[in-house]
Design brief:
- The complex is a heterodimer of chains A (about 150) and B (about 100).
- Chain A is of the alpha+beta class and about 150 residues long.
- In chain A, about 20% of the residues lie in helices and about 45% in strands.
- Chain A folds into two domains: about 30 residues, no CATH class; about 120 residues, Immunoglobulin-like (Sandwich).
- In chain A, strands 1, 3, 5, 6, 8 and 9 form a six-stranded mixed sheet that branches. A three-stranded antiparallel sheet of chain A has the order 2-4-7, with no helix packed on it.
- With about 100 residues, chain B is mainly beta.
- Chain B has one domain: Immunoglobulins (Immunoglobulin-like), CATH 2.60.40.
- The chains are: A alpha+beta (about 150), B mainly beta (about 100).
- At the A-B interface, β6 and β7 of A face β3, β4, β5 and β6 of B.
């Protein structure tokens, strides 16, 4: 009896493990880079992300944002680039308490030539975009007027 | 918390639009009633897979707006490809959605 009961118990336990593994694919996540998300200075954030690699200004990156926003909490942003083999797009706010808004990395069939999102800005400032393409780094920036800060 | 996902495919190129329901608290906002700071609570990572292969990973902070929205393109897709999107937040909460492309 006891043997059978413990057998059932362990069978159930292993079933639960399989279920957790299937529905919570934690292993899909790499570690979140805590340090870069603590930095206020855009330059320090860039060094933390890319080291001392050269970043070249490019007119092949377009940043679409409204020219001004009453509320800095929800600002639509669209990044388009004609650069090829885009590996990542990083969004950085010039004057937020934390500079890095997010870094999006594309692989395989993921196409990094277009990205649309919504960001928070604390005050009127530039938004800096860095695109990693063919192992080179390119950047562009766009200014936006913000009436009410969206970072509180 | 939930995920809404929309896809549209034309000539093998799919646009994926996703909206994740999440407060994205910066840790600097005060509760209007108690005047106390609301603790940091935001999504940290997003992962998107097509047929089990990673196509997009994002690391984000609280500088992405409440209820994060994003859209991007996938190349060479076909009907019935399986798209999976998951997120993880700083408190260890997670959510996943799976959908088949039309």
């Amino acid at each position: 009896m006891i043997n059978r009961r413990s057998l059932i118990k362990s069978a159930l336990a292993s079933l639960t493990l399989v279920k957790v593994g299937l529905f919570f694919p934690i292993q899909a996540f790499a570690a979140w880079p805590k340090k870069v998300f603590s930095l206020e200075s855009p330059n320090e954030a860039l060094i933390e992300l890319f080291g001392v690699r050269r970043i070249t200004a490019s007119n092949r990156i377009s940043i679409e944002m409204p020219p001004g926003a009453e509320n800095g909490a929800i600002i639509p942003i669209t990044v388009k680039t004609g650069l090829e083999n885009v590996k990542s797009i990083s969004l950085i706010a010039e004057k937020n308490p934390i500079a890095l808004l997010g870094q999006f990395t594309f692989r395989g069939k993921g196409n990094g030539e277009y990205l649309r999102s919504r960001i928070k800005l604390a005050k009127s400032s530039h938004v800096i975009v860095v695109v990693e393409s063919d192992c080179e780094l390119y950047t562009a920036k766009q200014y936006i007027e913000v009436l009410k800060g969206g970072c509180d | 918390m939930s995920i809404k996902i929309r896809t549209k495919t034309k000539a093998g190129i799919t646009i994926v639009s996703a909206m994740l329901r999440h407060p994205m608290e910066t840790g600097r906002r005060k509760d209007p009633d108690t005047e106390e700071l609301i603790p940091v609570h935001h999504i940290t990572e997003i992962s998107c897979e097509l047929n089990g292969e990673n196509v997009m990973t994002a690391v984000i902070g609280a500088g992405i707006s409440t209820n994060p929205f994003f859209s991007f393109y996938l190349n060479d897709t076909k009907a019935d490809d399986i798209l999976m999107l998951s997120w993880l937040d700083n408190l260890g909460n997670t959510d996943t959605i799976k959908t088949a492309l039309k």
